[in-house]
Amino acid sequence: MKKSLTGVVLALFISLAWAPGASATDGHFLHGVGAINSAMGGVGIAGAKDDILGVLYHNPAGLMALEGHHAAFSMELFKPDRTLEATAPTQQGPFTGTQQSKSEFVPIPAFGWSSEVIEDKLVIGFGGLGIGGFGVDYRQNNMHPLLAPKTMGGFGNVFSNFSLLKVTPALAFSASEKLSIGVAANIDWSSLSVDPFPATSPNGAFYPSATASATTFGFGFQAGLIYELTDAVNFGLAYTSKQMFDEFTWNSTNADPTDPAFGTHREFSFKLNAPAIVGAGISLQATDQLFLAADAKYYMYSSTEGFDESGFTQTGAVAGFGWDDIKVFALGGQFDATDKILFRAGYNYSDNPIPEENSFFNVAAPAVIQHHLSLGFGAEVATGVDLSLAYYRAFESEVSGPLYNPAYEFGQVGVPGSNVTSSMFENSFVMQLSFHHH
After folding, report:
1. CA neighbor of 74 nearest in space, from 7, 129, 19
2. Which domain holds residue 239?
3. Is the pTM here over 0.90, yes or no?
4. CATH code of 123's domain
5. Buried/exposed code over 166-197 (b: 16+ C-beta within 10 A; e: otherwise)
6. Tens-digit pLDDT profile for residues 194-222
7. How many domains does the chain have?
8. Based on the number of CB atoms within 10 Å of its own CB, is 227 exposed (0-12), middle (13-18) or buried (19 or more)?
9. Burial label, 248 (beta-carbon count in 10 A; 0-12, 13-18, 19+)
């Protein structure tokens, strides 16, 4: 394990290269990272049950529970299914269409490593985690009011792909016999492509494309504590700061074929930060075989640039996604059937961050999932090597609201008789290999 640094660095670059976008489940974040954490509903603030990935995602104070040396590698295959329905009034009556997004399995990697530097006093850790994203791929559809060709007043095909990865060096120390404190730096990387791109002024009625993925780095931190209330009960608190990103910037062209400047260069930018998160959790070692935990989190989208504003600006650009703050609750458990075989299960609930009146502005980012159920299995396959598998289902949710048009009441009022509904559900399979040496 002490010689594993080269492998850890290699895994980091693999993770960076393999981190495509996916529609996540708690807002635009994954509810959990890795097979162990995902199977347990994403609990981890009061302890992630010997799982380095869950610790690095939720609360770095949990590093103190990882004795010796640990490493883990996870790959998730994530499949979101999304549908867009819209109705627009016409002189001939309502024009209604439905279209499913192209849907494929998306790989989401993660790895983590930790080492006990001073026994029972200091543990360090490091990880690269794919933690979230969103995306759609709706084809042009002449029978759909939003996806009709641009020359017919629609958007044509609608595509988006957002990816979010964090690299997190962390440490935890024992402040007392019962109190562990952890801190971590978050070095974030994200990419975004959108077509058409509505968060800039259009050329006439045509929004330009931002199809070449723009990338940017962001920075923030995490801090947390875990307090041992009794030999069997732990209480945890965790805070993730707002993640501050540079602007995405794209090279594009004038998209209006009737404009004499059609096809000439355009450059535009958009800033999308990640919200601050505060959470609390409790865990219970109910018996030698049964471990239970519960978490509650609060995601502060309404004060996060890119998510805070909505509607149209005076130039016809969309101001932002307009998301609300959300509450997330997670329950999880692990049952050790034998010394080598165990089972996991979990439930996760998330508020829908998209207000009904902003459904139209979130066609490219339909983060509407609320309920998830997860199951998992773990087995020791060799000395110090564990294999964990997980499956979770995010059940169908939707958001509906009116269609907006800058030409109608300056885009400040929804078009009467119109409707835009985004719905989605998700299935995901996760495999994780964990290594430990004491």
Report:
1. 129
2. 5-437
3. yes
4. 2.40.160.60
5. bbbebbbbbeeeeebbbebebbbbbbbbbbbb
6. 999 999 999 888 999 998 779 999 999 99
7. 1
8. middle
9. buried
